[in-house]
Amino acid sequence: MRWMDDGIIKTQGVDLAVFFCFEELTLWPWMVSAWNAQGDQVQAIVLANQWFATDLNSNYAQALSSRAMARIWGWGWVRSVNKNL
């Protein structure tokens, strides 16, 4: 991950803020994306991998954190988890 990148991509005319794994738990990526976001149409797309959060408590904490941050910035929230089965 690039620390100074805003993590925002545009697809089909919609701005998407993309966060990966541990970024769900840290404030910096959310602040950078919110600062650089243009318009109110940003959706938060959060991807998590099981290798980082192997137990349910960590996975649950990541989900709560990212959902709260998406609500703070007024973004939609979609989360996908790769369980590495």
Word description of this protein:
The protein has one domain (8-82). 33% of the residues lie in helices and 29% in strands. The protein contains two helices and four strands. It has helices spanning 27-36, 56-73, and strands spanning 8-11, 14-20, 43-49, 76-82. A four-stranded mixed sheet has the order 1-2-3-4, covered by helices on one side. Helix 2 (56-73) links the parallel strand 3 (43-49) and strand 4 (76-82). The two termini are 24 Å apart. The relative contact order is 0.21.
Assess the beta-strand content as a share of residues. Answer: 25-35%
The residue fraction in helices comes out at 25-40%
Query: Count the helices. How many?
Result: 2
Q: How many DSSP E strands? A: 4
Helix/strand structural class: alpha/beta
Question: Concise description?
Answer:
This protein has 85 residues and is of the alpha/beta class. It has one domain (8-82). It has helices at residues 27-36, 56-73, and strands at residues 8-11, 14-20, 43-49, 76-82.
